[in-house]
Amino acid sequence: MSEFTFLKGSEDWWRQAVVYQIYPRSFADANGDGIGDLQGIISRVPYLKKLGINAVWLSPFYPSALADGGYDVDDYRNIDPRIGTLDDFDQMIDALHAEGIRVIVDIVPNHSGSNHVWFQEALKSPKGSPARDRYIFRDGKGEHGEIRPSELASHFGPSGWTRIIEPDGTPGQWYMHLFASEQPDFNWDNQEVRDDFLKTMRFWSDRGVDGYRIDVAHALIKNLANGHLPERQSYDLSVMKKDGSDDLFDRDEVHDIYKSWRKIFNEYDPPRMAVAEAWVWPHRRPPYASTEELGQSFNFDMLGAGWDAAKVRDVVRLNLKTAADNGTSTTWVLSNHDIIRHATRLGLPNDLDVAKWYAKNRFDPHVNVEQGLARAKALTQALLALPGSTYLYQGEELGLQEHLTIPAEQMQDPQFFRNPDVGLSRDGCRVPLPWARSGQSLGFGPGGSHLPQPAWYVDYSVEAEDGFAGSTLEFYRRALSLRAGLVCEEKWHEVKHWFNSNVLHFKRPNGWQSVTNFGSKPVKLPKGEVILLSQPLVGGKLGPNTTVWIK
Ligand code: GLC
Prior knowledge:
By secondary structure, the chain is α/β, with parallel strands linked by helices. The protein has helices at 38-43, 45-51, 86-98, 117-124, 130-133, 191-206, 254-265, 286-289, 309-325, 342-345, 354-361, 369-384, 414-418, 462-465, 472-484; strands spanning 18-22, 55-58, 102-107, 137-138, 161-165, 171-176, 211-214, 273-276, 295-297, 331-333, 389-393, 493-494, 503-507, 513-517, 530-533, 546-550. Helix 6 (191-206) packs parallel to helix 7. Strand 8 (273-276), helix 8 and strand 9 (295-297) form a beta-alpha-beta unit. Strands 9-8-7-3-2-1-11-10 form an 8-stranded parallel beta sheet. It has a 5-stranded antiparallel beta sheet with strand order 12-13-14-16-15. Strands 4-6-5 form a 3-stranded antiparallel beta sheet, with no helix packed on it. The structure holds alpha-D-glucopyranose (GLC).
């Protein structure tokens, strides 16, 4: 492995990193089977290097029936043969490390896939057996056990329980799944489950993985004591208890698990990092992100801030303060594989419930694409100037919009199929990337594309943007290369804006200033040298929907 240098000492490289999320099945396809693969990633390492990121986070690449895009893992210590082999994985890590790019992989501990050997063993084993104890099996209610054990809906709707056929061919027990029925929840009171995940962490850490993104990190422990069974119809944060006693999420006991993982992470040099996907109340986030546990936790607050200076400012203040108070660094997220791309969200009227809007308008969506992209670039630029790690999602550097009109028969997302009336799908942000202007899958690979690429993808392809001044790709490259110079003390100083509350204006210790105009009228620029603009100036002033960096 070649020499590489990281941001600030190798131990805390992740504190102010730019992490680029790769959704492996949709990034680059080397073998032409229509599904992205590890060799595809290897072939694009020069692209990632030129983009200027510090790390990649790979969504699951494990063997999987793909009932939930790979978040239904059938073998935690292997690679889906459609994606590659363990040798390819080693080659990929070497290729990325050689360019100074760290590697974060996704760990899915709340549930396995239903083809996992343990779940298959549980199905073949009798009620009450040790094999069933690794999952959450219960008897149904009613005379013949035909009624589900509790009123629990799944995250993807409708039921959170599925009944099995016992080995003797009769309908039998039910198992709990917070997500799709192909994702049975583990019983984390079972020691074998705990030990197996420690083994998984060691397996990937030994292979040189630098960190982990922990899927639904707040869900592992449920209130199952004394025959109790959780009931839940809504997964809205507002119904979650705030004190660690909720039946399903963010229970205090979950932290023992992450403390045991931290011991493993610290056996390595440098210690492995981890980031929690924990949709919890903001005041409950710090323990996940503490140095005794995972180290970092996603802050998804910006998703709810829309294009509103006051809300963005509050989110920034709160999260920088919480991080500072707890000795960690915060994270900034605008897009990922679960949410409508921010270039599209910000092209919709502010304060719209995007999920509801999509359900209603999916056959004829109207998005102000120009406004969406302008605001997306401006907000991304502002967040890149803040202390903390920024997580980018593949394709946002091309300015990609959500593909909102995928025909129902080509959808893959279980959220769509389990909720046909609502019609909500996450497939629109998971469409294979356009690398070229032409070709069967626009350069994604020599074959087709597992989700359809819309015609307008051509104009957002890497080929269409590479080297073109004013393209979104060149803007991201410039922003990331400048940001490398901003990785200084984790401090910021908010500048009280002198005339306009629609402006977010702050300074970093090295003297850099970032100003974003959320209003509808151009505003004056502070003094100094303009080093980056998300849109050209308007009559010498900072136009609406624009961010500027000044030195
Ligand atoms: C996380 C993932 C999402 C997945 C779910 C169940 O929220 O980001 O894609 O469907 O967990 O694993």
